[in-house]
Amino acid sequence: MRYATVTDRFSQDQVAMPMLFRALLALTLCTAPVAADAPLAVEIVTTATVADTRSQTLTGEIVARDQLNASFPQGGRISQVLVEEGDVVDKGAPLVRMEAVQQQQALRAAEAGLSTAKADHAQAIEDLDRQTALLERGATTRIRRDSAQDALRIAEATLAQARSDLERAEKALSETVLLAPMAATVIKRAVEPGQVVGSAQPVLELALGEGIDAIFDVPEVLMTQGYPIETVSLELIDSTGPTFEGRTREISPLVDPTKGTVAITVSIIDPPSSVNYGDAVLGTATTEGPPHITLPHTAMSATADGPAVWVVDPDTMAVSVRQITIDRFETGRIIVADGLEDGTLVVARGAQLLYSGRIVRQAEITQ
């Protein structure tokens, strides 16, 4: 009797358990459509046309607007360097001296040669005058008189040559002293006393006048955006002084093949007294382009026809896909050229969970 009772209870449990599973399955099927129809929380942005304002900051160097590499026209050994870097010199001030022993000897030889040529020329004039007087009295022959005239012509040519040699020797001696061509500032000193330099080898770098520029190596890609850079805000890197202004003066037509950059020269307007040649400077240029619609990069989707975004119907909050034309990609955002209007609701985040007609709601944005 006891065995029969246990068996009956086991049979009843076998029947009850499938019924319980069927009830749970029915409950799950009934609640699944409710979860599918619940609005999906996504991040939504409203499109608006904004001005294309860009700000780029690069590092450059302060340079002289007019520079000159001073050098000797002839080679030799440096005897004195009379200036230091940073010195301000007047026009005609001596900068560097070269050993001039040979030039001095050549000058003395030229002076002696000129004295001899002058004496020979004076003697030739006297001989010609005497022969002319004798010829008039019939005391000499015309051949001797013509010979005296030829001797005078030779003496005149010798005198001209001697004067030319003296001028050349004086110039060679003067060229052993390097003079400032105009008021200038010494930027760089490239030689020391005792050093042998060649002809036209730079010995000093001079800044002529008071004009100051800043040179920047700008990446080539920034030059292809088509926005002119006119005014640049400048500040020294290692200074807490005020900012100052510059204007673009020259843009190199060539691209540096090793760095892929373009040199831009900026003229500094009213530079502060703390600015010196060779200082590192930060230049910030702000440009204004045509207005456009900007979206975060997470809003971008795609179809077989190309780039697209999910737009939200403000009345029903249902989404649909819309094709767009992209002008360009930037860090963290995309610039839309066509396909959207101001005030359009666009899904910015969560688009991977969408399908056409899906109901969405604005998610709470946490910082």
Secondary-structure map:
Blueprint: H1 2-37, E1 40-46, E2 49-71, E3 76-81, E4 88-89, E5 94-98, H2 101-137, H3 142-174, E6 177-179, E7 184-189, E8 196-197, E9 202-219, H4 220-223, E10 231-236, E11 244-251, E12 261-269, E13 280-296, E14 301-303, E15 306-312, E16 319-323, E17 325-330, E18 333-338, E19 345-349, E20 360-362
Parallel strand pairs: 1-20
Antiparallel strand pairs: 1-19, 2-9, 2-13, 3-5, 3-8, 4-7, 5-6, 7-9, 9-12, 10-11, 10-13, 11-12, 13-18, 14-15, 15-16, 15-19, 17-18
Family: Belongs to the membrane fusion protein (MFP) (TC 8.A.1) family.
GO molecular function, one term: efflux transmembrane transporter activity
Keywords: Coiled coil
What do you see in this structure?
By secondary structure, this protein is of the alpha+beta class. It folds into 4 domains: 40-54 and 292-362, Beta Barrel (conserved putative lor/sdh protein from methanococcus maripaludis s2 fold), CATH 2.40.420; 66-94 and 180-205, RNA polymerase II/Efflux pump adaptor protein, barrel-sandwich hybrid domain (OB fold (Dihydrolipoamide Acetyltransferase, E2P)), CATH 2.40.50; 101-174, Helix Hairpins (Orthogonal Bundle), CATH 1.10.287; 210-288, Elongation Factor Tu (Ef-tu), domain 3, CATH 2.40.30.170. It is 30% helix and 40% strand. The strands form 3 sheets. Strands 1, 14, 15, 16, 19 and 20 form a 6-stranded mixed sheet that branches. The protein has a 6-stranded antiparallel beta barrel with strand order 2-9-12-11-10-13. Strands 6-5-3-8 form a 4-stranded antiparallel sheet, with no helix packed on it. Helix 2 packs antiparallel against helix 3 (142-174). It is rod-shaped. 16% of the residues are buried.
